[in-house]
Automatic annotation (TrEMBL):
This is Zinc finger DksA/TraR C4-type domain-containing protein. It comes from Candidatus Daviesbacteria bacterium RIFCSPLOWO2_01_FULL_40_24. Residues 26-50 are annotated as: Disordered. The keyword Oxidoreductase does not apply. Keywords: Metal-binding, Zinc, Zinc-finger.
Amino acid sequence: MLNIHQKTLDKIKSYLKRQQKQVESQIKSLEKEDPVLSDGLAESPESGTESWSADVHARFVSMKNELLGLSKRITNSLTSLKKGTYGKCERCGKKIEVARLDALPTASLCLSCSKKTPSRTKR
Ligand SMILES: [Zn+2]
């Protein structure tokens, strides 16, 4: 059993839920503003510049992918919170430091494993 305070867990849970909603609405607004996905092509500054919308689209896609990745991590964290496996390192199975979880609730690796893993999702 992980010795994380119930209070801390509750805090993390509500934080994650809030963050998930934010991420979802960010994804939605990105989709709305994406010149390729939306019908907003006519709104490009210079009339009908295709390279402009392709540029913007590429940027939106990478932002969206980032958000989708974050959303997935949030979902995973919420699932493990429900299952009671939250705070366990995915790599070594040890407990993740509570201070680390407090600062980064979506952390799935303990501090020493995350140091060993060059990950672009690391914050
Ligand atoms: Zn570890």
